[in-house]
Specification:
Length: 139
């Protein structure tokens, strides 16, 4: 009797305290505009009445700067054939870069074709094997 009473009490205590220890869910955070740069309440992540110093602004800007240009360089006009932006690319450099890109593209296409051919051969071999075993299993 005591054991069941204690286990019920322990379960009730755990059940009531889990709300205070629960992790924040994706919809638990209310939108307050602290991290939205276009909001009128934007204050670099601090409370509205906090006066943000220049060092705090710089820290926030550095943390939120998008320096990774690899993800959006498909239509980036600043690629400059792999050279710096202020480098004037010569005709041989451009031709070398285009030849490398062409060779990479051809190698990728060749690998895809070989993979398709390999898959077709394996499918044919599998069908041939199944047909031969089906033939022997009927006897």
């Amino acid at each position: 009797m005591k054991a069941s009473l204690f286990s019920l009490l322990a379960a009730a205590a755990l059940f009531t305290s889990t709300v205070s220890f629960a992790a924040e869910g994706p919809f638990d955070r209310r939108y307050d505009g602290r991290d939205d740069r276009n909001s009128k309440d934007f204050n670099y992540g601090y409370d509205r009445n906090h006066r943000v110093t220049n060092a705090e602004k710089a820290r926030w800007e550095a943390a939120h700067r998008n320096d990774d240009r690899r993800d959006d360089d498909h239509f980036d006009r600043n690629t400059n054939y792999g050279f710096d932006r202020n480098h004037r690319v010569t005709a041989p450099e451009r031709a070398r870069w285009e030849a490398q890109q062409r060779a990479q593209r051809e190698a990728q296409e060749r690998a895809q074709r070989e993979a398709q051919i390999r898959a077709q051969r394996e499918a044919q071999e599998r069908a041939r094997w199944e047909a031969s075993h089906r033939q022997y299993s009927r006897r």
